[in-house]
Amino acid sequence: EITSLLSLCGGQFSGEQEIRVNSPFWILNIPSEEMARGLMKRTVCAKSIFELWGHGKSAGELYASLKNYPTDKMLPYLQSDSTYKIHIHAFNKTLTQAQKIKKIDALEFLPFKGKVNLKNPEHIFWILEDYGMNPNDVPEEPIHLYFGRWIADGQRELIESYSVKKRHFIGNTSMDACLSFIMANHGRVKPNDIVYDPFVGTGGLLISSAHFGAYVCGTDIDYNTIHGLGKASRKNQKWRGPDENIRANLRQYGLEKYYLDALVADFSRPIWRKGMLFDVIITDPPYGIREAPRRMGSQKETVKSVERSTENHFFVSSSYHLSDIFFDLLKFGAEYLVMGGRLVYWLPIYRPEYTEEIIPRHPCLKLISNCEQLLSSHTSRRLITMEKVKEFKDQDENSYLLDGQYMPYRGHNSFRQKYFSGVTKRIAKEEKENQK
């Protein structure tokens, strides 16, 4: 998320930081404070950003680093008519108040001229101490220390304010608010973009994009979901109300002006005119756990089921293999994204069989990032971010069939049975243990 936002707002990781990317504290090179604030107006992963005045692997190195920091850069924030306070944060360790005061007093060599104001200071400074990532092996002394001036906090409060628990219209697969904002940031959604979700459901992914000023739209094969009809997903509610729909969700957050529309459509069948349309495609395809992947069938095909929607809408559905969903998705992104536009989607994985080779590829799309979210001991899903780097040509349409790498992707089709086989084994194991 941070890497995507840096490419959008400006900046990069510092050279030494690339060695310590697993640290909870990251050093970034950002040209201006304005850009730093722009970054923090987007991120839900980062907690705060600071202007770094000094750092080191010991207290002595930190103090030496601070003494070498240019005085002219410090002085604007240390004037006699200003107020300040100093915070201490220790990662993976709890410090006593006496220890904190001792560490603050050790900074008396800094030319602070203002008055201390603990309630409403003009400037806030932080001592950040890193005691490693292992709670079972906490060192006596920090492995790295930082001192800096606080600039801004991230947007982690969005996770609570946009919580699905408080949302007007939800479904079985409504996306968690935190993940929804992370996906929008991976897609580098910005004001006036057009963002499309081909498996829109209740529109959870549209909300985060609209929050960042993009115009949003989507499609879904489920007539009832698009129109807010049928049985409700919320506990203690039998049927959906007359005002439960995607538009109402965006209206709830004051974002209705960014809502273009949602269509009932089968993603496996073309409905859009040729030509690039979308700046970002963000989606969570169905992979058969809570919702079955479906597409339109015909009487000539082997009919799996005939379903009846509200208001006498009938459709014949047939199976839509996961591998076909992902290839249709990549082909669609390659054809309908603008150059430099991004495709962000979730790919379910059976972990014992996972290799990089099973990530679907397309010659028009470059893989930007591949992040894992664990679902169980044997399954996970990976957040895949791709960027359009090449114009789509007719010969690119079925290119994945020609490169000899199509077969490994077929493994995605059995994800559901592998997922539930693991659940069945776990239940059987627990029952066996209870019998002992």
From TrEMBL:
Protein name: tRNA (guanine(10)-N(2))-methyltransferase TRMT11
GO biological process: methylation; tRNA processing
S-adenosyl-L-methionine in keyword set: yes
Summary of subunit composition and partner proteins: Part of the heterodimeric TRMT11-TRM112 methyltransferase complex; this complex forms an active tRNA methyltransferase, where TRMT112 acts as an activator of the catalytic subunit TRMT11.
Broad class of enzyme this protein falls into: transferase
Record GO terms (molecular function): tRNA (guanine(10)-N2)-methyltransferase activity; tRNA binding
Pfam families from the UniProt entry: Tmrp11_N (PF25904), UPF0020 (PF01170)
Catalysed reaction, written as an equation: guanosine(10) in tRNA + S-adenosyl-L-methionine = N(2)-methylguanosine(10) in tRNA + S-adenosyl-L-homocysteine + H(+)
InterPro entries in alphabetical order: DNA_methylase_N6_adenine_CS, RlmKL-like_Mtase, SAM-dependent_MTases_sf, TRMT11, TRMT11_N
